[in-house]
Design goal:
The complex is a heterodimer. By secondary structure, chain A is of the alpha/beta class. In chain A, about 35% of the residues lie in helices and about 20% in strands. The longest helix of chain A is centred in the middle third of the chain and has 18 residues. By secondary structure, chain B is α/β, with parallel strands linked by helices.
Chain lengths: ~325, ~325
């Protein structure tokens, strides 16, 4: 088994709810949005780890916490052998060379006043990752080639408005990979792109990950795409991980009722396979006051009684590192 | 006679840089109760087709040529007044794209639906309209006691249901849904599509489902039209087209949609990007991205021909044989 690059333990992020002046006078208790509420997982070298769930489940917050773009409320984030939650800004800056992010919207994440060459060179310059201009140019050209932006010499001088959405996302990907990072977060990298170009951007990311043996956290709501992209998948709901396992375990041998519901809801591009009629009711509850016990019990089609309402299920291993947090599988061995 | 027949419809938008060829020479027809899916990438003219049928194009949009026959009457020539009181909402109605933003945030949902009813059916009293709303809300699965709420008090799924209720307010025969699933979470999206399917059957509606997502269309429609750069490039029965796509673009689009039930595979997409409709490519509009492109594709535009009954395609590869 290859080495662990990222290991997070019991990570939490609670955002305080702004109450205003009168609110703070009359309500003594501060309310929190429990965006991420105690999650643990690890990502290995060269692995594509998918984090899936509905909006509001805490996927994006998790991605930002791991890069320390947000400060965690509690928990530890081990990067290699180092707990990065304890580092100060200077020490963090050293580490940022080794961890990067691709944002969701390439129309917003690229500076419209900078040419592509400068956009990609910026991380090298800011983090002093190169010794001279010649090396800088070489690195930029190389990564443009990797990102399949041909001819590189031409793209260097183009501006973002001259590029299509797919090309922009290639530039954003090139910018993330130019530092040759050990860990990259991609937050819904294709949701803003045209359907015909989505697959090629993801395929590019897969090939870069293979080439550089990067650890990759892929945040998405699209289970169909993650099925073809990820090695392992974690399903999040209201700040908690509900199920975690290899892609095949989660998709084909899913155990958690929420995972099953998500998979049933994914439309299948095949007119001959009609969807089964079980669609769960309601929408994701507010993370300010998450339901007691199992957070999913209010919508769960397999609710088994008071235990779901009163006791929070732990994430347990049901065999072969397939983890699930559900009372249906509490304590006993399950072979799917 | 078909319920709706679109013949050689061409719609352009005038801009400072010249006309945008948003919809060019498209034809299709539909019968009562028939579900049609209209698929394609963003900017291919799907929404413009819907706006043309309802005659609610923005100020710079214009139907240049062609006919839209609704029960034999050409909508293109109908007066605004007749359109408003006879056809729009009573004959053809639309679920607007982006339910999140389509409702006016400063009016109660009830009042917005009443406005739609009174505008299109001037004979109805406000009291009758209110009663109708209770029925509509029950039909779309929203508690009628919530009708007095403002849009911000509704969740995303409820807003989409309210939009569907509004579209059904005057018992239309054709319902057009523009991207009804986008911006919703997959579970809520599945709920909304299920509702859409049930209503379609119950009310015997002819529906046009506009979406970029082929998987949604394959689950809800029997007939499928694929649009590319303002043209319908393939039209036919959804089973045949998924099994045996004839146009290279259809083929590419289908393989760009991964199936969650399949084994892990390499993701395939169509190289290049959709063309600029200010200056569409010569010949077949798809030729710059087509892996089967031949010389003739650059020069001549292929004809839209019927290969087998009800299956039309616009491609030189097919017409050659």
């Amino acid at each position: 088994m290859s080495e662990t690059v990222i290991k997070i333990t019991n990570l939490k992020k609670w955002f305080p709810v702004k109450m205003g002046f009168s609110g703070s006078l009359f309500f003594r208790r501060q309310l929190f949005v429990r965006a991420v509420d105690g999650i643990s997982f690890e990502i290995k070298k060269g692995e594509i780890f998918g984090l899936a769930g509905e909006s509001g489940s805490g996927k994006t917050t998790t991605g930002r916490l791991i890069l320390r773009l947000l400060e965690p409320t509690a928990g530890t984030i081990m990067f290699r052998k180092q707990d990065i939650t304890r580092l100060d800004e200077n020490e963090m800056k050293e580490l940022r060379k080794r961890m990067q992010i691709v944002f969701q919207d390439p129309y917003e994440s690229l500076n419209p006043r900078m040419a592509v060459g400068d956009i990609i060179a910026e991380p090298l310059r800011v983090l002093h990752a190169v010794n001279n201009e010649r090396e800088l140019e070489q690195r930029v050209k190389q990564v443009l080639k990797d990102a399949e932006l041909h001819p590189a010499e031409e793209f260097i001088f183009r501006y973002p408005h001259e590029l299509s959405g797919g090309q922009r996302q290639r530039v954003a990907t090139a910018r993330a990979f130019v530092l040759n990072p050990e860990f990259v977060v991609a937050d819904e990298p294709v949701s803003m792109l045209d359907v015909s170009t989505r697959a090629e951007i993801l395929q590019l990311m897969v090939s870069l990950v293979e080439k550089y043996q990067t650890s990759f956290l892929y945040i998405t709501h699209d289970l169909a795409l993650s099925r073809h992209m990820c090695d392992r998948i974690a399903i999040m709901y209201l700040g908690k991980i509900m199920e975690l396992g290899t892609t095949n375990q989660v998709i084909y041998e899913s155990l958690h009722p929420y995972t099953k519901a998500l998979i049933v809801a994914v439309p299948v591009p095949d007119p001959t396979s009609k969807r089964s009629e079980v669609v769960i009711k309601g929408e994701i509850p507010s993370p300010v006051n998450p339901p007691s016990g199992c957070r999913f019990h209010t919508r769960c089609p397999e609710y088994i009684g008071d235990i779901c309402r009163t006791k929070e299920p732990q994430l347990i291993d049901v065999g072969d590192n397939h983890l699930v947090a559900c009372h249906l599988y509490g304590g006993k061995e399950v072979k799917a | 006679m078909s319920l709706l027949e679109v013949q050689n419809l061409t719609t352009y938008y005038t801009t400072l840089r010249g006309p945008v060829h948003a919809v060019e020479n498209i034809s299709f027809s539909m019968d009562k109760g028939e579900p049609l899916g209209l698929a394609g990438e963003s900017g291919c003219g799907k929404t413009t087709v819907a706006l043309s049928i309802l005659k609610i194009l923005p100020y710079n949009g214009k139907v240049i040529s062609g006919k839209i026959l609704f029960k034999g009457k050409d909508i293109v020539k109908v007066s605004d007044e007749e359109m408003r009181t006879q056809i729009r909402w009573k004959g053809v109605s639309l679920i607007f794209q982006g339910a999140m933003n389509a409702l006016n945030p400063v009016y109660k949902i009830e009042d917005q639906i009443i406005e739609a009813i009174l505008t299109h059916e001037p004979g109805v009293t406000k009291k009758e309209a209110k009663e109708r709303i209770v029925r509509l809300f029950e039909m779309v699965g929203v508690d009628p006691s919530r009708k007095g709420n403002y849009p911000h008090e509704f969740s995303g799924g409820m807003k989409q249901r309210a939009m569907i209720a509004m579209a059904l307010a005057c018992n239309p025969e054709i319902l057009i849904a523009d991207e009804p699933g986008t911006a919703l979470d997959v579970i809520v999206q599945a709920q909304v599509l299920k509702l859409f399917n049930e209503l379609k059957k119950r009310l015997n509606l002819a529906t046009i489902l506009i979406s970029h997502d082929l998987s949604i269309i394959s689950e809800t429609c029997d007939k499928l039209a694929i649009m590319y750069a303002g043209k319908i490039v393939e039209l036919g029965d959804v089973y045949t087209m998924f099994k045996d796509p004839l146009h290279p673009y259809t083929e590419g689009l289908i393989s760009a949609f991964p199936n969650i039930k399949e084994q892990r595979r390499k993701m395939i997409s169509i190289p290049g990007t959709p063309p600029d409709l200010l200056r569409p490519p010569s010949g077949c509009k798809f030729h710059p991205r087509c892996s089967y492109a031949m010389d003739i594709c650059k020069k001549n535009e292929p004809e839209f021909i019927e290969i087998s009954k009800g299956h039309f395609v616009m491609c030189h590869l097919v017409s050659k044989e």
